[in-house]
Specification:
Helices cover about 90% and strands about 0% of the residues. The longest helix is centred in the middle third of the chain and has 34 residues.
Length: about 35
């Protein structure tokens, strides 16, 4: 694996981690909204 491939893979992993964090934040926000309703 070349260094450029590793950098690209790191970026993909980071993007996936960020996406999962966004999804968890959105679901937590939805639960909070439902609890208030």
């Amino acid at each position: 694996m070349t260094s450029s491939e590793m950098v690209e893979d790191d970026a993909t992993v980071e993007a996936e981690r960020q996406r999962k964090a966004d999804v968890m934040a959105a679901s937590a926000k939805a639960r909070a909204t439902n609890a208030q309703a």
